[in-house]
Every structure is written in C-alpha cells, then in structure tokens.
Amino acid sequence: MTEALSLKIPKKHAREALALTRQLALLNQELKLARETDFIHIPLSREPLSDQLEELRRSLPQLEVARRDFAENPRKHVKLVDVLSKRLPPHLLASLPHAIDFIGDIAVVEIPPELEPYKRTIGEAILTTHRKMKTVLSKWSPVGGVYRLRTFEAIAGETRTQTVHKEHGCVFFVDLAKAYFTPRLSYEHSRVAMLVREGETVIDLFAGVGPFSIHIARTHKAVRVYAIDLNPDAYSLLNKNILVNRVEGKVTPILGDAKEAVDGKLTGIADRIIMNLPEKAIEYVDTVCKALKPTGGVIHYYQFSDMPEPTESAKTRLAEAVRQTGRRLTKIQSARIVRGIAPFTYQVAVDAEIK
Q1: Are 20 and 299 contacting, i.e. CB atoms less than 8 angstroms apart?
Q2: CB–CB of 93/25 below 8 Å?
Q3: What is the C-alpha separation between 114 and 12, in angstroms, rounded?
Q4: Pairwise CA distance, residues 310 & 295, whole Å
Q5: Does domain 2-70 have CATH number 3.30.70.2580?
C-alpha cells in the first residue's frame, strides 16, 4: 500500500472526475482507485494548484481532498516530466503544460512561449506517455471568428485534425480545424441532458457537431430537439453524428442563423433552449423569448464573466435582457462557474425559468 492524496467523490460522478483529473494532469496512474459503498477515491499525483482546485470544485462540488492508502497499480505509468527530464533544461520543466485535452486519439496542448523551441520533443513525449494518442496538436491561435475556430500545428504523430471522440456513450465525428469542440464541457452536456424531461421540445441554438443535442436524444425516449448551426462544416458533422448515434428521429438539424431559424418555423414551440455561445449569447435573448412557448420554459444560458462576482453579473445581465423583451425571469434554477478560460475570467452557466 502507498499513501497519496485522495480525491473523494460520489460514485455517480466518477467518470467526470476521472476525465477532469486526467485533463489537469493530476491523476496518479501508478495507484489503483479505491471504492466505498457510495464513494470512490481517486489517487492524485500531487497537490492541486489553487486554480486547478477551483476547477475541480466547480465541476464536483461534493469532493473532499485528503490522504489515504492506495494499492499499487501493476502497470507503471510513465509521467511526462520523467520522459522530458533529460531532454529539457531543468529550469523549464516547471513550465510544462498542466492540462492536455484528449479528443478521440488527438492530444491538444498549449505550448508556453519559453518551450516553443522544444515543442516537437514535448509532442513526442506525450505520444510516449499516452499510447492511445496518434496525433499531438499545439494551439496556434485563440478561438475566434464567426465559427469560433482556432488554428493548430501538428507537433507529433499524424498530421490531421479529424478524429472520433466518445463521451457518455455517444460517438462524435470531430474536425478541430473546421468545427468548435471541447471535451471540457463533457459534464455540462451530461448535466443538461439529465435536466430535460420526457416529452419536451428543445432548441439547441448553437449546436456545433451536436454534443448537447445528441446527449439529450440518447438520454430520453420522447424528446424533439432542433439543432441549429451556422457553420456548414459543423452542420455536416452534426448530420453524421445524428446517424451514427441513431437519433435521426429525435434530432432535426438546421443549417443557418439561429435568429432566422426561429423566425422561420420555431417561434413559440420550445420548452427548453440551450444558448452555448458565451461570447454572444446575450444578443440572442430576444430570439430565445420568441422561441419559448407562450407559457414559458427553461433556458441554459452561457457567458464569459470576470471576477469578483462572475455568476451574479451573469444573472443580472440575463434578467435585464429578458425584461426588455416583455418576458420575465421568474427563477434561477442554478448558476455556476463551468471553467476558467483566462486569469479571473470564467465561463458561467445560468439555468433560468422564463414566463
């Protein structure tokens, strides 16, 4: 037995917790998970940094961090820092990326400027430590443009941006250069899907390749989801994902602007609307209020907010925008920080009832 830091969480959140600890490079793969009746203990490789601990607590509010004994894993996992310890100057090891996004068999990493001369060495080391990965991409630009895309540079393995990603039993064909996708919203996709009720009509205003829409359709037997996206490449992948997940009778894909789609045939039909376009969602509140049924419904609103009170500012901004449409925000079901995107800036989710 070996003593190590433990992340204690309810068993129902085990999958999300494992994915998040891997993304944050905190999972100690040399030790086995420990289980209790209702809880699971995940061994950590080191003390989480303050921002990492905040991200863990945002996604897993019931977590506890303590020390305990774990059985050793017979398969020893080679750490990235160990592989690079003899290939990089010692003073640069502290700058190694703490988080890696694993999308299908592609690893996506952000290389700090001081490590740019060593990016290919780092890429090869990632392939060594994560043998299921076939490609390592370095983020070359921030997310931008109408379609929320970024450019990448292949620094190891195969030169491609297409892959097949699996999440909560769903399969997604993804092209990172052509359609926005992030595995960091995996918990949000599952969380929102679980809130949907049988018989609802849902509109996913900015559907992308379909993670929200398809999760909902796979979770419920009797739902109707309208998935809208302006990006033709995302729309093409969305259609493919609808077929491969066998939800073609539940999810209706629509290519075009969300405002035009609602004005065209979706006015007054929705019980629930997803607004995952954090940069511009506030500009579509009037569209959402048109799309909701006359009796009202629920919206899942996302925006970027700064400290000191990111959730409060999001709630206030949303309530005022709804009021200006003639509707009324009657209840905040939930307001939470989803993830940090920059120092003191967060993506916030607000679930609100509109009458």
Answers
A1: no
A2: no
A3: 40
A4: 30
A5: yes
